[in-house]
């Protein structure tokens, strides 16, 4: 069976990977392709840490993704995937009862009170992974090309238009914010993010969540880290805001109790503004006839990615199963 995919972001590529590994023939159509640096898609600009979230849905999706990237980091360092230490702080919870991934990640421990920064109520430390999208996305595309996947550059506005280009009946809609038009889904919403790529030799993720959203995520082979951040739902402003940049730097300085200060402009590599594919009510991962919808993962696209691909493969299997003639029981 041939399967068409709309979108070559991390969800589309992961879906293509899971499908070709299962023996399906795959075609991909997308406005942007790996290597493009347009602000019109989110995947190249992500941090991108493989970081589960306490109240997130789809634990199995995140577990499968973690296992995939963990194996990849140990098997092939050219992918831009690396194992890192993670320290997470929270001021919106007093204990780790909601940290479901404590049984998944290595070296998990709860920090003592004296290890917490000011105002933090809980701190945890463990090992996880980061992905450098500038390396990883082209790597995945090359793997797919070697497996016979064909890529088409085009902006499509409907499922029917995608079918016309790809000539496949089964379509995976991994169009991110494009689902606003392609799926006529009014729940889709941009979530503006602004971060700063700075020079650093740190290999640790540091994250504060609750009353503010402040973090540092290493970007392998780049000579630096990504610091952030903001989540501004509904904003399409593409310009980096100087006030926001200063606020991010100050928040991270306070988080590290003055030990890390990225205010020197000589350390600044790049301002980054991009738009995460949010969806009110949560992500959509379901079958609708011969269409599989997989979008709306907001900040957790990389964290869900390969698990989503495996779920997409199961949903495509269900279509294939229906197309087979019934077996004779005589």
Q: Compute the separation of the termini in Å.
A: 28 Å
Q: Averaging pLDDT over every residue, what do you get?
A: 95
Strand content: 25-35%
Number of helices: 7
**What is the H/E order?**
EHEEHEEEHEHEHEEEEEHEEEH
Low-pLDDT segments: none
The coarse silhouette is: globular
Mind explaining what this structure looks like?
- The chain is α/β, with parallel strands linked by helices and 330 residues long.
- The chain has a single domain (2-322), classed as D-Amino Acid Oxidase, subunit A, domain 2 (D-Amino Acid Oxidase, Chain A, domain 2).
- Helix content is 28%, strand content 29%.
- The protein has helices at residues 10-21, 59-75, 133-146, 159-166, 179-182, 242-255, 301-323; strands at residues 2-6, 25-30, 49-50, 81-90, 109-110, 122-131, 150-153, 170-173, 188-199, 204-209, 214-219, 224-228, 232-233, 268-279, 284-288, 291-295.
- The strands form two sheets. Strands 3, 4, 5, 6, 9, 10, 11, 12, 13 and 14 form a ten-stranded mixed sheet that branches. Strands 7-2-1-8-16-15 form a six-stranded mixed sheet, with helices on both faces.
- Helix 1 (10-21) packs across helix 7 (301-323) and helix 2 (59-75) crosses helix 7 (301-323).
- The longest helix is centred in the last third of the chain and has 23 residues, at 301-323.
- 44% of the residues are buried.
- It comes from Paecilomyces lecythidis.
- This is FAD dependent oxidoreductase domain-containing protein.
- Its cofactor is FAD.
């Amino acid at each position: 069976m041939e399967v068409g995919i709309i979108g070559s972001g991390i969800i589309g590529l992961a879906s293509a990977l899971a499908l070709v590994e299962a023996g399906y023939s795959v075609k991909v159509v997308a406005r942007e392709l790996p290597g493009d640096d347009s602000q019109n898609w989110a995947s190249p600009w992500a941090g991108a840490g493989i970081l589960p979230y306490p109240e997130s849905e789809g634990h199995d999706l995140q577990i499968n993704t973690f296992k995939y990237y963990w194996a990849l980091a140990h098997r092939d360092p050219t992918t831009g995937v690396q194992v890192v230490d993670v320290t997470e702080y929270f001021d919106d919870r007093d204990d780790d009862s909601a940290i479901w991934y404590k049984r998944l990640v290595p070296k998990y421990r709860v920090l003592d009170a004296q290890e917490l920064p000011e105002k933090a109520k809980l701190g945890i430390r463990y090992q996880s992974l980061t992905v450098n999208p500038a390396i990883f996305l082209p790597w995945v595309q090359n793997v797919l090309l070697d497996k016979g996947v064909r890529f088409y550059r085009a902006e499509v506005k409907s499922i029917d238009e995608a079918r016309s280009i790809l000539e496949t009946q089964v379509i995976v809609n991994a169009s991110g914010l494009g689902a606003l038009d392609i799926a006529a889904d009014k729940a889709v919403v941009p979530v503006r993010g602004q971060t700063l790529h700075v020079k650093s030799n740190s290999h640790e993720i540091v994250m504060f969540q609750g009353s503010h959203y402040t973090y540092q995520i290493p970007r392998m082979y780049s000579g630096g880290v990504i610091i952030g951040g903001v989540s501004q739902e509904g904003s399409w402003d593409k310009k980096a805001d100087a006030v926001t940049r200063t606020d991010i730097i100050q928040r991270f300085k306070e988080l590290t109790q003055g030990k890390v200060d990225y205010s020197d402009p000589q350390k600044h590599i790049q301002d980054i503004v991009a738009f995460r594919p949010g969806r009110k009510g949560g992500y959509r991962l379901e079958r609708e006839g011969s269409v599989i919808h997989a979008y709306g993962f907001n900040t957790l696209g990389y964290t869900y990615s390969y698990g989503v691909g495996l779920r997409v493969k199961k949903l495509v299997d269900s279509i294939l199963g229906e197309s087979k003639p019934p077996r004779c029981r005589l």
